[in-house]
Amino acid sequence: MPDQPLIYFIDLPTFPKGVISLSFPAIAASLPEKYPIVFVDLNLIGFSDKNVRDFKSGNVFFVGIKVSLQNYKYAIDTTEKLRTYNKNLKIIWGGEYPTLFPKEASLYADSIVCGAFENVSSEILADLTLYSLKRSYDGKKNYNCSVLKPARYSILKNGKFYSQTMGFPLETSRGCDKKCTFCMVHTMQPLNNFKTLNQLNLELKILNGKYVNVIDYNIGSNKEHLDNVIKAFTSSKTLGWMGEMCLESLDDDDLLKRLAKSKCRIIYCGLESIDEESLLSINKAKTNNVENYSRIIRKAQSHGIQIAAGIIIGMEGANKGNIDATFQFYQSIGIIYAKLTFLTYNPGTKVFQSMKRVGAYLTDKIEYFDGNHFTFLPRRVNKEEVMASLIENINSFYSKRNILKRAANAGLKDLEFQEFIHFNLSYREVYLKWIKNDIFNNEEGFKKLLNKKYKKSNAIIQSEKTINKIRKKRMLRNQ
Q: Is the CB of residue 268 less than 8 Å from the CB of residue 339?
């Protein structure tokens, strides 16, 4: 084995595109620095001539590929292509697909990781050194966030080519204490644990001058941890941050004051619908009290914190009336953005089989279970009615006219108003591409989006520059 063999990480085509993924920077942090890491994001570029020379040279320790249900076929093709360069390459798959389908994934990769790679990285390196790589590694057990090292963002050589609107990703905890029926977090991250205040301070120091996107599933699940996050951001030199928690957690003026002081700009809440039957069907009726939505959202907005919200399409009871009503409520209350996801029960999970009693699966193609496709149809739901309402509402909600109205409905002025507008001009691009490519009726349209290399339009570049200037002005104004 050469003195300094390379480690290659490969991100496969995925959609939506353009947001910085934390996966490989986090994994890279768990590896000894003596190994040079080469990261190739196939959403941005293909393999270069130098990459091919490296693969052929025998100087690659292993190739790690992140595989989801959406792109597992691309993983198969990429693995076969790599072996044409060098049949002795050690190729390791990790991510959603090998965690849910370990037997199937093992047919193609030399080894697979189920769950968190960081938990088994030392074991994998040791086995590779001894030429005794195991067929699979279980990273789901006993992982501990308090020992994780800061992500190595330096492996992202093309960082400027990603969307800057959502900011740099930061993980402060793993797992979630809620039990939403559709959610896969308990399969991928079965334990709920947290980074320490010292870890957060160190990581935020690395992100000085950046806008940060805390990607935890529920940053408010533990009050002590949330206090640490607030303390760390308050003392940091970041431009601001956004995160995710349950709306009910924000029904606390003292918490909102501290969040605002810490430069928290946006909290994403999985509101999903304003229809109680729909919420009950996904086990969200206890965490989502519709009667409290308006009051708590207005309270958060009064502290300068914007609320973003999820909408799950195709829940039990879904129809044009309650879909229209949900979008109309989001518009009138001034939701900064709505993240749209189709109801998805992932193959390979226990809930997948159990849900057959309340509905029917529209496809058996695993790659469609990505949240971008209508895969599950509850009884008494008319797919055509739901889809027609969805398309109509996407066009309306993300029209420039309604973006302006929503900013006004949120009670914003001056810098905050401008940031709201430009944020939406960037964020809406994904959904306009949905419509333009007719992905709901034409799978070829979706494949086109999946295969296309990501490149920001000039309009998006200008919006991002404006957003960055506004964020710097807001930070200076509030010092």
A: yes
